[in-house]
Amino acid sequence: MSLSAGLRVEIGRLARSRLDLALLTLLPAVLLASMAAMIFPGSLHSLKVVVVDRDGGTLARAIVRTIEASPRLKLAGVTPQIGVALSAIRREQAQAVLVIPSGIGTAGTEHQPIEILYQAQFLAAGSLASTDLELATAAALGTNATSATHLAGLDRIPHLATGIHVRLLGNPTLSLEWYLGLLLGPGVLHLLIAVTVIGSAGLLLENNSFETFAGRTAAPAMWITGRMIPHVAAGTLWGTAWFLWLTLARGYRLEGSLWVVLLGLFLLFVATVAIGLFLLAITRETATALSGAVIVAGSALAYSGASVPINGAPWVAQAWNAVLPLTHYLRLQMDETMGAALRPAVVESGWLLVYPLGPGLLALFLMSRERRP
After folding, report:
1. For residue 83, how many C-alpha atoms fall within 13 Å in the half-sphere facing its CB?
2. What residues pair up with 48 in beta bridges, in sequence order?
3. pLDDT at residue 163 in the model
4. Prediction pTM value
């Protein structure tokens, strides 16, 4: 059978080529281990903040003490001058600034708000520091509410109404390890498998043509499909290992079905193979196809909408987002992370099947049509 023949040939080639075998075994392990080490600390902590205290009174000191006691904040300094605090932000010695107005907690100062400033460049760290500053300040103001009738700025600090319970979906611990791990693992493997697929299928080219290969091979489309099986298997197995590392070893919780996520991983790498073969079939050059794979898979994470919101972006960015297979896998994965209904996962799985049924079949046709009797 041509499918099994192609599989045997590819396994034999990988056994003979240490470099190609390493691309499917050693390199994924090194990349995933490196990422695991970089994001291992999990949630951000010791976020440096500066307090601009323009009051110096009892309530202002209580706010400062509450900030010092916060487990995720580190007080980098207290100063009456806003310029000193902004300078610390510019030197990256602090992620956020809390400005306490003069006369806080006294009558007549209700319209002088407490301000929280953070550098937009530090989007994740600054946002978390800002949130923790809000919580710490609200706690201090609430503690002192019985002794202060008018708390200036209290209405500017978010507070929860009685009977309302807020639950964070998908990542209740605000862990960057869980958030980044869900994105980086599939993203890196997506690019790596696209490269190995093109490297393997590119060996079939001779003088920028598949004629020689197609002419001497029975059922060349099935033969190529069999040759791609180890690449799909490697991507799926490494993706599964990465997901089990995050959930079993690191203890993060998946609200939905693990089996649906693993099916999504399999479909992602089937789609990756289809894209790689399509690029090679239309360019007829391994180097050009590899460049295309870097553009498609290398930009996939940035345009997936998981890290930077794509809503409101130019239509070109939204269109590019829609045609990338990683976009649909990450939507499936994030839905399962939050425990969404099965229907969205079925829809995204259907989109992932478009790639092997569309560009994939077209690539196999282009690569095998030059077969001569």
Report:
1. 0
2. 74
3. 45
4. 0.77
